[in-house]
Amino acid sequence: MHAFIRMAGARTQRRNVPRLSVALVAFVTALGVTLGLMTTSVHAAEPDTRGLFGQQDPTYNGVYRQSASVLGLAAVGITAPRPTVTWLLRQQCADGSFTGYRLDPTQACPEPDLVSFTGPDTNSTAMAVMALRALTARYTGSARDAQRKTAVKGAAARAAAWLTQQQLSDGGWEWIRGLGADATSTSMALAAIGRKATPTSRRGSTWLRRAMSIESNCGVAFQPGSLVDPLSTSWTLIGAEGALPYVRYTGPRTLTPCTGAQPGVLAAGTWLASALIDGEGQIPSPYSPDETDWNATALATLGLSQSHGSTGALRLGLAALKSNVSAYAESADGDIPAALGTLLMVAHAANANPRDFGGVNLPARLLATVQK
To answer: What topology is assigned to 4-367 in CATH?
Structure first.
């Protein structure tokens, strides 16, 4: 899944430059949108946008950003508004999968298309699984809540079943059928499925170890044999730690060492901690070293908040994110919901005030993006 180019406001950051062929440039461009952080021009009013977080064109990132928003709100104890949940449920395909965005949910989901990079994809589905499962814990008490919980729980189960079935024979997951396995897609799937110590999990972890470079302090490449990349490494740690959103962890943090012939995938935290410490809380883009990769910085900080993390690196990442909310979460077309949702998860996991995160009220800013 992820070699990609991300646009944030007027700035364009090159990320995970394609390593296999020039033809992957188109794939890279599309993928940046899938991760929820690429902004394009504001779209005209379209069917099924009521309840959608954000004003940007949802073609490639609608489900990702909706799910990240729901996860962020759930992390800080806020149940996503009913229209936002309805929007997400209506996006699900008949087989349980999710695409980046369905313009008309009454129509069948398209088949995977490697020209337009549309169709069911594992990234959107993995994020939706985690968001829907987080919602089930928010519905308690009333009969109406019980009905919603049943619908949401069923949707999560169907999505998780589809996602599990997409594991390839080599143990990894691919973003869209036909592209081949990659580290971020594999890690997101493992985080969403959450079945540790099972054959599915072990095979996925084995694939990730092949993408990990011991010589590079256990950084993880997009695909085995390519360059270490911050986003793939961040998602690898998250996939090993477990499903989002994380609980607030208050115990000691200990990095898994990058030692031995085959270190475990949790050792990805060693690379991330070093990157955050060396960058004073900011992970630079490997292809534009003078620019910060804020998405990788936020996800690395989130991953390092748990037991297999680093308190020192966590504090540096948290401070940098607080000081640069606008750089990460604002664009010319308005606030970026996926970034705000990610910051909410970071705030909760790192015991920061989400309503005064560097002077920003994150829940209020995120809820203000919901389309009416």
So the answer is: Glycosyltransferase (1.50.10)
